[in-house]
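Renewal narrative, Specific Aim 1. Our central claim is that a sequence can be written position by position from structural information alone. The example that follows is taken directly from our test logs and has not been curated for this report. It begins with the structure tokens describing the chain, in the order in which they were read.
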């Protein structure tokens, strides 16, 4: 009898519904190569071909159609089971800082891969605000930049680098830089910026100040606020560009332009308190670690990149340890 891995069943169902490896991989939050390899492993284990694929299309075989139909039922039954069990499980409390950051994608990965584990997702505005709750057990996991002047982590808190986030310039409609495919860092010297930060996001504020100091950038406005939506509204209201993640969601009238030479990177670390008795934190940390590897979150750009000096030594040590 062949044991079925529900994760592989979920992969096959997603591929059958999307009929495209790239779209299915994006939906599953895994790399396309990983999905292809896992489907091949499933077919080998079952001894049947589930999909006919070439460079142009994906087609479900007769055996694949049977597998997908039964697989959907199997996944639904499994979902019902873990939901029933989940009613008795303690939630995993995770602070994602705000909307529009890679931290939200990480929370989604945890939902996908920790089936049956309830998540309580919070937005605490910054690591400075999250640390006391983390240390005192009111939070289980948080994110932020851990190597900057003034940062003192409680000894009980563990941390691990999980993402080097490329940043670009968010530009409002009508700005002289609108329409550019990319910008060199030195070009930003001629265009005053908007700095929009929460008063708790001291790690983010310091990163922006160090970037400005090193490359001669200026801030025309410094505002306190919380969230990507509020930052976008300020960019539109003041007509000023701002530094933000390349993946930041933006409304109509605003675009994100990559910045190169160098690419500014923000180092997100996962922070967690000592494990709970149920082992949920240990499992969650491993899920995030695996996702960072599969999705290349710690692979720096091939071109030149920048980190504050206090971060760079730490990051380079981490990267050397991965090879």
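The sequence written for that structure reads:
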């Amino acid at each position: 009898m062949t044991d079925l891995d529900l994760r592989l069943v979920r992969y096959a169902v997603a591929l059958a519904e999307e009929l495209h490896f790239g779209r299915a991989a994006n939906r599953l939050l895994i790399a396309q190569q990983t999905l292809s390899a896992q489907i091949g492993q499933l077919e080998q284990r079952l001894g049947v071909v589930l999909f006919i694929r070439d460079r142009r299309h994906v087609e479900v075989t007769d055996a694949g159609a049977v597998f997908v139909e039964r697989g959907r039922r199997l996944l639904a039954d499994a979902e019902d089971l873990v939901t029933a069990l989940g009613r008795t499980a303690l939630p995993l409390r995770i602070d994602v800082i705000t909307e529009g950051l890679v931290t939200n994608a990480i929370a989604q990965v945890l939902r996908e891969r920790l089936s049956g584990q309830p998540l309580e997702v919070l937005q605490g505005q910054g690591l400075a605000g999250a640390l006391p709750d983390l240390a005192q057990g009111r939070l289980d996991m948080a994110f932020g930049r851990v190597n900057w002047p003034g940062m003192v982590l409680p000894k009980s808190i563990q941390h691990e680098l999980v993402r080097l986030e490329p940043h670009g310039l968010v530009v409002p409609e009508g700005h002289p830089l609108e329409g550019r495919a990319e910008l060199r860092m030195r070009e930003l010297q001629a265009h005053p910026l908007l700095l929009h930060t929460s008063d708790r996001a001291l790690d983010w504020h310091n990163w922006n100040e160090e970037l400005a100091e090193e490359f001669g950038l200026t801030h025309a406005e410094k505002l306190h606020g919380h969230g990507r939506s509020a930052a976008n509204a300020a960019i539109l209201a003041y007509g000023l560009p701002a530094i933000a993640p390349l993946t930041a969601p933006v409304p109509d009238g605003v675009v994100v332009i990559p910045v190169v030479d160098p690419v500014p990177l923000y180092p997100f670390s996962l922070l967690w308190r000592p494990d709970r008795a149920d082992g949920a934190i240990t499992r969650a940390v491993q899920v995030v670690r695996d996702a960072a590897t599969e999705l290349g979150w710690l692979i720096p750009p091939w071109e030149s990149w920048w980190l504050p000096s206090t971060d760079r030594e730490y990051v380079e040590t981490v990267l050397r340890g991965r090879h």
